[in-house]
Amino acid sequence: MLDSRDARLTALAAPLGLDVDAPLVIGGQYCAVLQYGEQLYVSGQVPRVGNQVQVTGAAGDAASLDDARRAAEICALRALILLRQQLGTLDALAQVLKLNVYVQSAPGFTQQSEVADAASALLAQVLGAAGHAARTSVGVAQLPKNATVELDLQAASRVG
């Protein structure tokens, strides 16, 4: 059993080719993570590894439910990597407060919450109870880079 949040993150990220210490590619002119006091805001993350978006197209059409769930996990891993890089360690994270999951959805696809469940489960796997957050999952017509999933989150760091 991996006994630290950072170790659990590394163990989940490495097989996908995500290096928790390397800068992540972002898609524009913005802050990937912004800290204001104890509050942390992670900008929208798509399922990108290196320069390649791993899962594209609409869930329920070009992407299966399992594909979309994998995309949500990659997005959540990216968000955790950014938080770790900002704070130095995930042990400095007190709580994920809010998770927003956007799913590019084919007409009739209504399993956005099942897609978001994959991200929520990954956050809980890495952070324990601190990964349980309020959540919104929404179906959308398009996402940047034709990504199947994009997520953002708000979190709080530990005081002092």
Automatic annotation (TrEMBL):
A Pfam family recorded for this sequence: Ribonuc_L-PSP
InterPro entries xrefs: Endoribo_LPSP/chorism_mut-like, RutC-like_sf, YjgF/YER057c/UK114
Protein name per UniProt: Enamine deaminase RidA (YjgF/YER057c/UK114 family)
